[in-house]
Design goal:
The protein is α+β, with helices and mostly antiparallel strands. The chain folds into four domains: 34-297, 2-Layer Sandwich (Heat Shock Protein 90), CATH 3.30.565.10; 315-387, Orthogonal Bundle (Helicase, Ruva Protein, domain 3); 403-540, Ribosomal Protein S5, domain 2 (2-Layer Sandwich); 555-599 and 629-701, no CATH class. The protein has helices at 2-8, 22-28, 34-40, 50-71, 114-119, 140-152, 203-210, 241-251, 281-287, 320-333, 339-345, 352-361, 375-387, 403-413, 471-478, 523-575, 579-593, 660-664, 671-689, and strands at 77-84, 96-104, 156-161, 168-176, 181-190, 223-232, 256-260, 289-291, 294-297, 418-423, 427-429, 432-442, 453-458, 461-463, 498-506, 618-620. The strands form two sheets. The chain has a nine-stranded mixed beta sheet with strand order 5-4-3-6-2-1-7-9-8. A hairpin with a 4-residue loop joins β4 and β5. α16 runs antiparallel to α17, α16 (523-575) packs across α19 and α17 (579-593) crosses α19. The longest helix is centred in the last third of the chain and has 53 residues, at 523-575. The protein starts with a helix and ends in a 13-residue tail after the last helix.
Length: 702
């Protein structure tokens, strides 16, 4: 009965969600604030994890300080202070709360701009200008303050003093991510700058302040101080704050940087083999000084980099949509402005005659107004831009590091025996000028059984992450290092005691993301990087061939000197001549035949007193060179001309000839044939010295 009722009962209806009409969907649409977007996607800005977040915060603040000082013509004095606010945390804690402070002696910031600079994303003065600078997007420092607010709930603390002798503005503000605007929670004028409390943080800061080397009012008549509390992790090693500041000091020798690390430090699991970060006490003493934990990166030069000038866009770097927008903007700015004037004022390398020819090419007169240009005419003008023969854009907008500064930086930071640097001429990508510089360090205390270390810079800023995605890394892997006597696995980095440094200077560096950690892989950029590396590689190859030739001649002399004593005795027994005279004559001949082993290379890699100075951008440290008898590092491949290989009828060399293994084998493996030849040559020369003809002798002579 129950079964029958269940069968006849109507099935239950499932509840369905009410349908939404277009009006209801439209009511849900709303604007998305840029700060709200990046708050949810902070990994795009470099705040992936606590350790990287701390580094990104310091990087953005230091970049802003260096830019401000250089633009104002002030030699930078920068203090980086990291305070551990939870020193008693358990050892298993993955992160902690820190207060990061960066103080500079720049021109300061006027009061009305503080909220915009530190409390708004995508706000700045560098985005729209074509001039080399570290900051570009107007995101960095405000994003760091936003991250600190999200993780700790604490606002940014800012001290700014735009004029000497006037009060300092003390401001605390927090960003409202819904509106992308700053909300000021504290605003007061004070007298002190820099803040006095930082001089009393530790025994190191007190000692350095007493010496007049830390946050003195004389060195900081104006400037800005930014403090951000955040959830982070301070850890030494690769990708650390220490490495970033060390590399920044190398690329910016005109800046003096004082670093106050936190009291509690987490050591890196893997020790840093790069000599820049872990160069040893001797090398580090040349670069930095330490006072009770406070590290000072001294100023290397007393001159600022050459002042850069802002340039206009190049016609070949403009796209059609951008050209249309530029025409509209020019019409709004210059009512009734002509196309003739527009071409000269809004572009570089367009002369009066060239502008007139371009107007004729699209069928308008020179008096035609820019606002009257229709889209079809603008498209014709765009094609004229592409076909025109124009000079490349000017390069006074760039400030490269320079060959000597590159060598000085590598020499101070890396314990090696050979240094080489190259600076290419400026080139163009998408109408924007850029310049590539490269430097290498080889040998010395660098590990010989590991892959080379690549140090990357963009506009004097170190790039520490996303190495494999960077154009500079790809340029290194594509450079034919085997041609310069180095091991080079296919598709990988060269193996050996080698450090490679690449710097790109440009008015607009094409980064792969907003975090500015890797350079986009443009063909023009990668080509210039490879050419710069190949120039350094040729110098290294020349140096290594000289060293290997000296080693071979030293081994040859060892063979001579090992047996001329016995030869002298044998000749004395045969001819009765004075064995001392025979020995002296044979020794003189041996030294004359192997004179290459006695050559001395100067600091430029040239043979002293024998060869002219034909190489530029090279430094050799004689004290770091291994003895000739010790050979070269095992990672150095034998040059093709080191051991001429006998070829068979099929054109293939016999096994073991002309290879690395054959070149590095002990001398005794190839000694019998060499000894026979040397014996015959020495016996003939000894007999000639004694005034007799050589007599054939059996193998029992030795």
């Amino acid at each position: 009965m129950a079964a029958k009722e269940a069968a006849t009962a109507e099935p239950r209806k499932k509840k369905t969600a009410p349908r939404v009409d277009a009006e209801a969907m439209a009511a849900r649409q709303r604007d998305i604030s840029v700060s709200e977007f990046f708050a949810k996607n902070r990994h795009l800005l470099g705040f992936d994890n606590p350790r990287k977040a701390m580094l990104t915060t310091i990087k953005e603040a230091v970049d802003n300080s260096l830019d401000a000082c250089e633009e104002a013509g002030i030699l930078p004095e920068i203090a980086v202070i990291v305070e551990d606010l939870e020193p008693n945390r358990p050892a298993t804690a993955k992160s902690s709360r820190y207060r990061v402070t960066v103080i500079d002696n720049g021109p300061g910031i006027v009061r009305k701009q503080v909220e915009n600079i530190f409390g708004r994303l995508l706000y700045g003065s560098k985005f729209h200008r074509l001039k080399m600078s570290r900051g570009q997007q107007g995101i960095g420092i405000s994003a760091a303050g936003m991250y600190g607010l999200i993780t700790t709930g604490r606002p940014m603390t800012i001290f700014t003093k735009p004029k000497a002798g006037q009060p300092t503005h003390h401001i605390e503000l927090a960003m409202n991510t819904k509106t992308n605007r700053a909300e000021v929670t504290f605003d007061k004028e004070v007298k002190e700058f820099p803040p006095v409390r930082f001089r009393e943080l530790s025994s190191g800061t007190r000692a350095l302040a007493e010496q007049g080397g830390f946050l003195t009012s004389e060195e900081f008549p104006t400037g800005t101080s930014v403090s951000i509390e955040l959830d982070g992790k301070y850890q030494r090693g690769r990708g650390s704050v220490d490495e970033f500041l060390e590399l920044t000091a190398i690329a910016n020798p005109h800046a003096r940087i004082v670093f106050v690390p936190p009291s509690r430090v987490t050591e890196d699991e893997e020790p840093d083999v790069l000599a820049v970060a872990e160069a040893g006490a001797a090398a580090k003493a040349k670069v930095t000084t330490e006072t009770n934990g406070v590290i000072v990166y001294p100023r290397g030069v007393q001159e600022l980099p050459p002042e850069t000038k802002e340039i206009q866009p190049h016609p070949k770097g403009i796209e059609l949509g951008i050209l249309l927008q530029m025409l509209k903007d020019y019409e709004l700015a210059e009512k009734g402005g002509t196309l003739y004037n527009f071409l000269q004022e809004r572009f570089c390398r367009v002369s009066a005659s060239t502008a007139s020819q371009m107007c004729e090419a699209i069928g308008v007169s020179s008096r035609a107004k820019a606002g009257d240009i229709e889209p079809p005419q603008a498209e014709k003008l765009y094609k004229v831009f592409q076909d025109a023969k124009l000079a490349p854009p000017p390069t006074d907008c760039l400030a490269p590091i320079g060959v000597r500064q590159l060598l000085a930086g590598m020499l101070k930071g890396v314990r090696a025996e050979f240094y080489s640097a190259s600076s290419r001429s400026a080139e163009v990508y998408r109408g924007r000028p850029f310049q590539i510089e490269a430097a290498i360090a080889f040998g010395g205390e660098l590990p010989g059984d590991e892959a080379a270390r690549v140090i990357r810079f963009a506009n004097r800023v170190p790039l520490l992450f996303q190495q494999s995605a960077c154009s500079s890394f790809k340029a290194v892997t594509e450079t034919p290092w085997k041609n310069y006597n180095l091991q080079h696995p296919r598709g990988g980095l060269p193996v050996g005691p080698l450090v490679i440094m690449i710097h790109m200077a440009s008015v607009w560096v094409p980064f792969t993301s907003e975090s500015k950690e890797a350079i986009a892989d443009y063909d023009e950029i990668r080509k210039e990087m490879k050419l710069a590396l190949m120039e350094c590689g040729r110098k290294l190859g020349t140096y290594l061939r000289k060293r290997q030739k000296m080693r071979r001649e030293g081994e040859r002399r060892d063979v001579f000197e090992r047996y001329i004593g016995e030869i002298s005795k044998a000749i004395n027994a045969i001819t009765g001549d004075d064995p001392k005279k025979i020995y002296a004559a044979l020794l003189e001949q041996a030294r004359a035949r192997t004179a290459v082993a006695d050559q001395v290379l100067d600091e430029d890699g040239k043979v002293v007193k024998d060869e002219p100075m034909d190489e530029e951008g090279v430094i050799v440290v004689p004290d770091a060179i291994a003895p000739i008898s010790g050979g070269l590092p095992p990672a150095v491949a034998a040059p093709p001309e080191a051991e001429p290989a006998k070829r068979t009828r099929g054109g293939k060399a016999p096994a073991g000839k002309g290879t690395k293994a054959a070149a590095d084998a002990p001398a005794r493996t190839a000694r019998p044939a060499k000894v026979d030849a040397a014996r015959e040559e020495l016996r003939a020369r000894a007999a000639k010295a004694a005034g007799r003809k050589a007599k054939p002798d059996g193998p029992g002579l030795f």
